[in-house]
Amino acid sequence: MKSLTRVLTLLVQLLRLAFCVILIYAAATDGTNGEASKSWPTVKGELTTADVKQLTSKGDTKYEANVQYSYEVNERAFTSDRVQFGGLAFRDPSKIVQQLKTTKELIVHYKPDQPEVACLETGSNLYVILAELAGALLMVVLAVADHLKHKRKIVSEASSEGTPNKISSKPMIFILVLVGFLIAALQLIDNVNIAGIPPKVLSVCVLFFGGLSIVLLLSLIAPCVGFCIRRGYLELAEMLANLNAAIFGAFPSSFELALAHGLQAEVAQERLQYKKALSLSKKALNVMAERRKVLNAVRAENIGVLEEHSMNLSQKQFSSLESVCNESLGCICFEMGNYDDAMRYAKAAVRMAEILMNDPPSDNLATKLALACALALKGRIENKLGCLDDAKADLKRALSIRQEAKFPYPDRLAIIMAHLASTYSMQSEYRTAEKLIDEGLKIVEGSHERDMELARAALQLQRAETKMLIGQYGNAEELLDECISIREKLLLPNHPHIAEAYLASANLSQLRGKSNDAARQRERASSILKYCFGVNHPLDPGSDMTKGASFPLAQRGIHTT
Fold it and tell me: What is the rounded distance in angstroms from the CA atom of residue 123 to the CA atom of residue 238?
């Protein structure tokens, strides 16, 4: 029974598609011929029939114009009943007939290469064309609605909760807007005449390249958001990210919508809106979970080899993005001081990236970089929790992956070196730590890009803390001052990375016996952390969770209170 239902459903969808194509073809043919008829040659014709015909069907009476005429082209006789392309629907038949009967000279417009195609009035009946397009749109809407209904049924049956998922009406709105845009474009083209270019060719070219431009523009929004974030243009990045999410909101459980929410979360994090960033990151993961549920449910049906292959590719694409989004969510939790949650998301990101790398073995750059990011985050958390051997292993692996990649993103590479140097310092391997920092500084040397400058600040902070651990306080002070200067210049005023630098500076002041300076710096750091995260952040010296020691010095047993 299921097989029969599937066959009947497919047949209905094919009939709808065929009817849609027929309607669009009729509308396009009438529209292009109607426009072209304005420049067709003309001959005199003879009206042979002109009356109003009465049609009765099921008690409903209708009237239509019955018109026929004859004409000659190159001594060949032709007959036709076409008054205007598109027909005479929505027009008063009696007025048309009366007008033709009172016309002294009947002028016939004919197609030069097909004289049998002719009309008495140039242009086309716009109302009929719009009705044909509306009919085509209705077929599309019905087909999409049935498809979504079927998908909802499958997901509902597969769901353990047994509750149907909400199907968004946004795709229908998107289709309506797109069709409206195409109709408006066609109307605009009707009023444009370019010598040597037939209107039909012009219409096809404009619609094709216009559609291509729209697709290209939509595909460029996400990279533009990333570019704006990296350059610090956060207001523009937020506007583009919101636009991107609004566009792809028409396609729930799509790769593009998940990416859009992920970009929104990244912008929110950069703007210090951590609760919003957390919510948006979870939205992105929810989209992916919904997509996986749909794919798994569809796989339970009998599908073809090509469909299976297509779904596998789609799942891999989603898994790669899901790894990145888990890493991003972990970074947000890490900044907020929720280290247990951060570790959970970091492990999930590593696991997903490793699956993609190993099954089958992959050299995909995006997957490699996703794994490097996930390992780097996991190493940072392990540093924070004092699991130094694990941190060293993960950070070294992340560094190796970055170094082997064709496009390693040098600022990210330098920052991983700073984190790994931190681990070495805490294990008293100061020379190795200094060597890593030197390598990182060589990478960012000479560059004044925002991300490279911030990477330089991270390296200087770590070098300062290493110097503090070995008692070279003078060098540490210079490095910290420069780090604070860079971060205050390039980051928002209350960014937690500025607080991190102030905490390190407070530790240095305390070690040098400058208690008043240390208290002032801790107060500044505390105000920043409270602004971003509220009370009781693990690094806030004014909270109950810490008493003024900043990482990594607290891990080394150097307490400054």
Answer: 47
Q: Which two tokens stand for residue 135?
A: 């009919």
75-94 per-residue burial string, b: 16 or more CB within 10 A, e: under 16: eeebebebbbbbbbeebebe
Taking the CA atoms of residue 455, residue 458, residue 463 and residue 468 in that order, the dihedral angle to the nearest 10 degrees is: 170
Question: Closest Cα partner for 499 from 546, 541, 534, 554?
Answer: 541
- What's the full length of the chain, in residues? 561
What letter does residue 53 receive in the DSSP assignment? E
If you write DSSP's letter for every residue of 441-471 in order, what string do you get? HHHHTT---HHHHHHHHHHHHHHHHHHHHTT
Q: Specify the range with the lowest mean pLDDT, choosing from 13-27, 159-173, 365-379, 465-479.
A: 159-173
User: Which of 364, 306, 373 minimizes the C-alpha distance to 346?
Assistant: 373
* Phi, psi for residue 254 in degrees, rounded to 5: -100, 155
Q: What is the pLDDT of residues 205-235, one digit of tens each?
A: 666 666 666 667 777 888 888 888 888 888 8
pTM over 0.90: no
Phi/psi of residue 12, nearest 5 degrees: -60, -40
CA gap 84, 33 in Å, rounded: 10
In DSSP notation, 55-97 reads: EEETTEEEEEEEEEEEEEETTEEEEE--SSBT-STTS-HHHHH
Q: What distances in angstroms separate CA 345 from CA 9, 395, 396, one per listed residue?
A: 42, 17, 20
Name the region of 150 (left: φ>0; alpha: ψ -120 to 50; beta: rest). Answer: alpha
Q: Please state the three-class secondary structure of 499-556 as a single string.
A: HHHHHHHHHHHHHCCCHHHHHHHHHHHHHHHHHHHCCCCCCCCCCCCCCCCCCCHHHH
Question: d(Cα 78, Cα 331) in Å, to the nearest integer?
Answer: 78
Instruction: Please measure the distance between the N-terminal and C-terminal CA atoms of the chain and give it in whole angstroms.
Output: 77
Sequence-separated (6 or more) residues with CB below 8 Å from residue 482: 457, 460
- Strand, helix or coil at 211? helix
Q: Name the DSSP class of 165.
A: P
Report the C-alpha gap between 312 and 305 in whole angstroms: 11
Over the stretch 423-437, which tens digit does the pLDDT of each residue have?
999 999 999 999 999
